[in-house]
Inverse folding.
């Protein structure tokens, strides 16, 4: 099923027909790659949201601390290079294209490039493993707009979300174990473990399986690392104060943990696949500073990035869609998620507000 066809009431949840692809599209959020890009990027992300310019300047300062460059594009290019090598070695040997929602290379330009190169059908990998409006449905909408804007554009299918795929869970387990190893042995058993993910408005959360998928992924990772006790917290909230978002916020969590007697906290950014700006600033700067002020020893686990198992997972998910009546691999109790999303999946929410934040990328 193509992305365009997915938004119909009678779309089947699984696509058991063997598909043939002649390209892969890696889609992500995008981010500024120089100081002159920062404000135009933030203005694009927040377009139509009436965000005060003072808030945009505040967020721009986050990027200033990193030379005005978000690491997300470089990290995605590293992932693409690793995927190209994986596909060349193990097949299918397909070209990989890169398109963003909010900064160059924009997905519409990439779709035009694909068309001009003779691509007729492509499979899209989105750099979000969970079902929510901004992490799944909005990317499908981005693709549809690109297809509408480019005459003769290729058909594009989307890979299913991978929150419970072993290629995502297993490197996440390894990263959590490595982070726990940084806690002194005599305090390790008592260390608090908290998985973090991007907060979204409650109205949006009610329209998706985001919370349930995060909880399942966290349980799988914690079990694999031998941790029975863990917490799920949220970060990077950007909405107006009167609109309820998912919580608890990671900074409030740190304060509560210290008040409860904790001395060590390990934060695992399970909701993100790479160390982009929200991880680097919200956790490595803000959360680290808060922990230091509280006298907490905080360790931040790595994201999966270009872990070989994760790159291999992407190839396996491509092959999965190319195979008739395929076996869909998944861990835990929720099973493999749908190939094709129904019309009412991952709705934006009653507030009609985007969950894009002014601190992402």
């Amino acid at each position: 099923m193509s992305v365009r066809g997915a938004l119909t009431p009678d779309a089947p949840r699984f696509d058991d027909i063997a598909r043939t692809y002649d390209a892969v599209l890696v889609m992500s959020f995008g981010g500024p790659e120089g100081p002159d890009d920062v404000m135009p990027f933030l203005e694009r992300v927040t377009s139509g949201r009436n965000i005060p310019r003072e808030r945009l300047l505040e967020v721009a300062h986050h990027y200033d601390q990193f030379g005005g460059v978000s690491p997300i594009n470089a990290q995605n290019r590293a992932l693409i290079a690793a995927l190209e090598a994986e596909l060349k070695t193990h097949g299918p040997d397909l070209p990989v294209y890169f398109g963003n929602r909010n900064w160059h290379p924009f997905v519409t330009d990439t779709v035009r490039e694909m068309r001009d190169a003779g691509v007729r059908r492509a499979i899209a990998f989105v750099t979000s493993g969970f079902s929510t409006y901004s992490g799944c449905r909005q990317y499908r909408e981005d693709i549809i707009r690109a297809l509408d804007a480019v005459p003769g554009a290729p058909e594009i299918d989307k890979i299913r979300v991978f929150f419970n795929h072993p290629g995502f869970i297993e490197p996440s387990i390894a990263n959590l174990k490595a982070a726990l190893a940084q806690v002194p042995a005599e305090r390790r058993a008592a260390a608090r473990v908290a998985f973090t993910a991007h907060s979204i408005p409650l109205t949006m959360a009610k329209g998706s399986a985001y919370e349930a998928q995060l909880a399942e992924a966290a349980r799988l990772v914690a079990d694999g690392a031998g941790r029975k006790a863990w917490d799920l917290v949220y970060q990077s909230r950007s909405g107006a104060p009167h609109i309820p978002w998912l919580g608890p916020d990671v900074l409030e969590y740190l304060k509560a943990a210290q008040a409860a007697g904790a001395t060590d906290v390990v934060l695992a950014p399970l909701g993100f696949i790479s160390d982009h700006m929200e991880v680097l600033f919200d956790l490595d700067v803000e959360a680290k500073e808060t922990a230091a002020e509280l006298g907490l020893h905080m360790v931040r686990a790595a994201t999966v990035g270009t872990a070989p198992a994760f790159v291999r997972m992407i190839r396996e998910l491509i092959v999965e869609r190319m195979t008739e009546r395929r076996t869909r691999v998944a861990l835990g109790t929720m099973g493999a998620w749908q190939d094709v999303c129904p019309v009412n999946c991952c709705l934006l929410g009653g507030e009609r507000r985007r969950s894009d934040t002014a601190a992402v990328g």
Notes: The chain has two domains: 3-163+307-321, 166-300. The first strand starts at residue 23 and ends at 28. Confidence is low (pLDDT under 50) at residues 350-361.
